[in-house]
Amino acid sequence: MAFADSAAIEAVELVKQFGSLTAVGGVSFAVQPGELFGLLGPNGSGKTTTIHMLCTLLRPTTGTARVNSCDVVAQPLQVRRAIGLVFQETTLDRDLTAYENLLFTAYLHHIPRADAQERILELLKVMELADRRNELVRKLSGGLKRRLDIAQGVLHRPKILFLDEPTIGLDPRSRAAVWGFIGRLRQGGMTILHTTHYLEEAERSDRVGIIDRGKLIALGPPVELKKASNRPSLNEVFLHLTGRKIQESQTE
Amino acid sequence: MSAGAVYTIVEREFKRFFRQRGRFLSSLARPLFWLFVVGPGLGRLIRSPGDVAYQQFLFPGVLGIVVLFGSILSSLSTVYDREFGTLRIMLVAPISRLTIVTGKTLSGALLSVAQGWILLVLAPFLGLKIGPAQLLAISLYLFLASIAIASLGMLMTTRIDSLENYSTIMNFVVFPMFFLSGGLYPVKLLPALLRYVVYLNPLTYGIDLFKHALLPAAASGSLGTDISLPLDVSVLVLFTGIAMALATLLFDKEAKLVKRAEPRA
How far apart are CA B105 and CA A123, in angstroms? Predict the structure, then answer.
């Protein structure tokens, strides 16, 4: 299978096995520049493993992937220069302040000090965290930490952003705030791949890939997926394709 | 390798060290306990033949404790970083694994040197004179010993999955390394078998360097140095090079990252 050269992300037959367990069993898709692409599936379906392979943290067992036209195995540094990744669990240092956490990330991404300070303050303002900037992260609420995690992922202005369950465990107000910010990033032309098991969040994507047990079982704009299987919601689409409800497989 | 990234990793470790009050205070209390509780007690039992009192002899060994705990604990914080996610921010940044290993190792080494300096303030109270030249020498030696031990610590973290193994490391690595280092008793007085083990321990060469710098030059008696200065330096430099290279090669074999990142299926 071949993809256009212009794709921001292209995965070709990606497979990841951990011992006898196949976490991802041959996934192919392409994401176009500026697209908001959603991977929808229950917990343990292989979403995170797929993202980690695309972000050079895991080596595919077989298959290839290119991100920003760079091979994830052969050119990991070039790939990491082009991407931002917000992990499912927080990656903040609880013993540093909000500001210090961002400064740490800035230096890891080779942003000069003067630029870094300016960018951090600007970003903290956008995230409505400016007045909490000198507080230790351990004192911040879950919603504020999540916003800071996202700030950490976009501080270096990546072309391509990976968001792994960006709103998991957040209250509705914080979820709305996160999606508001994602909207602003899109206006700036950023390509975004997010994973979710919230159906209403998948609906916001330009295109959705439905992933189950390590396989991509459907791919397309939400409207078309619903039309193709003649079902009113993505939930019904998932039920139609797998015989299970998406929430049944999750433990939360 | 990126100097800016190494700098920020070191800066973070220093901030954390001084903010974690318990860790900071125990790093101060640990050497004092040996110097002023264990030292005087054992000193009463030991009639030293030369012109070095046992408490003076113990001082380089106590500097060794500072280096050992300071460096190993700092390197082991990599395991903490892995558990709490901060390591992932480093792994997904456009920096090499060597940069991360160098940053973490250097953090441990510099933190130990700083802790060593604090202890040096006490040297005059034990009748050990430290001039500017000696201070320079001891700083260099502290760094050589600390970076060797920090590299060893980094190498160990590549084999440790979680903080649960922490007490195992303490009991089977840290304490034996101290007791078999020439810090408490002169190496030459040990039985042959133990002596071989002592010479396999990098800390031995560090503590011997401290003896070279701190004990009076005339201390050639049993409470003097055990190894020549050039050999001490060579062993430490070589050990650091090998341990760092191995640590970089083995650093974050992906499975460890994934174990935490992947929700249980």
Answer: 32
